[in-house]
Write a structure and sequence with these properties.
alpha+beta; Arc Repressor Mutant, subunit A; Herpes Virus-1; 10 helices; metal-binding
């Protein structure tokens, strides 16, 4: 396919939108074809072929810039839906201590430090703040905040601003930085005030995440691709939500199904894990900590 206005319009759309769904991609193509005076094929197979050809041609043009348009899947959805995202393909494993400062030049150093704190909590779980603990009265039992990998509640995220080494962030300052990450399509916030990673983040940061979090980032036991927001079975296997969702019969409403059998051991896996359904989730007493 000859490089023309269709490619330029599609690339501009991806640049402006950051994360482009299939329906949005179709709208971009429709606009491009209309400008050329052509009709966009309506069959899904033909549309998929055109999208592959266009992204392939664009990637050949921009590969010398270490950029590429790739397909990414949203880990937060039970239905497997692909998105087109423009990513920087620079190997981030070479700058692990600087959190991709060469790639994410639109962010200040203290903003990237804040992102690193958010990533640590979202991937490894809540960490205690020694200074805060010294000012709190000790209880017989320490409450460990409920942790679901790949997300963090907005209130807790704002509180992390006080833990920066380079600059202490007030809640309003922390909120402004989070909003900036959301605007740039690195993070997203749900109606229930949960902050999660976007498909763009997952696609672009894999070369950073795997070496930095080797004990916390694994591969889905079904598709063998990297999974951050994983669903854990008691047998130790981890899965994408959408991979487990694919096993639900089409006759059922996936949004209403609460659990599915593990594809490996057949144990029940809760699709919407809470503190009571997540394997190994519990509170720890001070006596247990002393024994460790």
């Amino acid at each position: 396919m000859e490089y023309d206005d269709r490619h330029r319009i599609f690339l501009q759309g991806v640049l402006n939108m950051g994360v482009v769904s299939r329906s949005a991609a179709k709208n971009l193509l429709q606009k491009a074809y209309t400008i050329r005076g052509d009709s966009l094929p309506t069959q899904s197979s033909e549309l998929s072929l055109i999208l592959r050809e266009i992204t392939y041609s664009i990637n050949k043009k921009i590969q010398h810039l270490n950029l590429a348009i790739v397909k990414a899947i949203d880990e937060n959805q039970i239905n497997k839906e692909g998105y087109f995202v423009l990513i920087n393909q620079l190997d981030r494993s070479e700058e692990l201590t600087q959190l991709t400062q060469k790639c994410m030049i639109e962010f200040a150093p203290h903003e990237l430090e804040f992102l690193k704190l958010l990533m640590d909590e979202m991937i490894q779980g809540p960490k205690s703040n020694t200074a805060d603990e010294e000012n709190e009265e000790s209880d017989d039992e320490e409450h460990i905040p409920y942790f679901r990998k790949g997300e963090i509640m907005e209130t807790r995220a704002l509180n992390l601003g006080s833990r920066l080494k380079s600059k202490t962030l007030k809640p309003l300052e922390a909120q402004a930085i989070i909003d900036k990450f959301i605007e740039k399509k690195w993070l997203r916030s749900s109606e229930s005030e949960e902050i999660t990673f976007t498909p763009r983040f997952i696609a672009e940061m894999e070369t950073y995440l795997r070496p930095v979090y080797p004990d916390d980032i694994s591969s889905c036991s079904l598709c063998n691709k990297m999974v951050v927001k994983s669903l854990l079975c008691e047998c130790g296997k981890q899965f994408h939500l959408y991979c487990l969702g694919a096993a639900i019969p089409k006759s059922k409403n996936r949004d209403e199904v609460m659990s599915v059998p593990c594809p490996k051991c057949k144990a029940s896996i809760a699709l919407r894990q809470t503190s009571s359904t997540q394997p190994g989730s519990r509170k720890r007493s001070h006596n247990e900590e002393d024994d460790e």
